[in-house]
Specification:
- This protein has 80 residues and is an alpha/beta fold.
- The chain has a single domain, classed as Rossmann fold, CATH 3.40.50.360.
- 34% of the residues lie in helices and 16% in strands.
- It is built from 2 helices and 3 strands; from the N terminus they run βαβαβ.
- A 3-stranded parallel beta sheet has the order 2-1-3, with helices on one face.
- α1 links the parallel β1 and β2.
- The chain is globular.
Length: 80
């Protein structure tokens, strides 16, 4: 039997709400990705993120508290 996990990142809570709805329908465990260093307004965070994408930078993430190797399938949600 495969083990499934919902992994999401949410700035304003919209993606979190969708991830929670998926969890309610599937019963899959839910884990939030959380960066170490983002602060500021939504526009400032978006500008910082775009700059990082352009430079190929990958921000540090807080520990998830789980072993990803224990899961076979991931449902991933991010802001648009």
């Amino acid at each position: 039997m495969s083990k499934n996990l919902i992994v999401f990142y949410s700035m304003d809570g919209n993606t979190r709400q969708i991830a929670e709805r998926i969890q309610g329908e599937t019963g899959f465990p839910l884990v939030r990705l959380d960066t170490v260093a983002y602060t500021g307004t939504d526009q400032e965070i978006i500008a910082q993120g775009q700059d990082e994408v352009n430079r190929g930078y990958r921000p540090a993430l807080r520990p998830l508290g789980i072993q990803l190797e224990d899961y076979d399938t991931f449902v991933v949600g991010t802001p648009t």
